[in-house]
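Kindly inspect this one:
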Amino acid sequence: MKFRSRLLKRYQPLFGVVDKMLGPVEEWMTTLMITEWRDEVWKHATHLIDAAEPTYRAGIVQQVHQLSLARAQDILGIGSITELEEFI
């Protein structure tokens, strides 16, 4: 719950505008983002399991690392709003 609260706090100004236009949607948007993130984690995990070659595995690990850093920056408010752009 702390993660969700922090995420909502980060994007609250945007949600306030959207709420006025469309009604309460932050729970829906948060659920949508988290669902997308879980799907990505599953996809990366299955790719790692299927990766037979160490070089390919290293590439997957590097992609996951970069995505994780970008997502952390977004949550902390020091990155772009890349996740919300997918849904708006």
About this structure: The first helix runs from residue 2 to 22. The chain has one domain: 2-85. The chain has a mean pLDDT of 78.
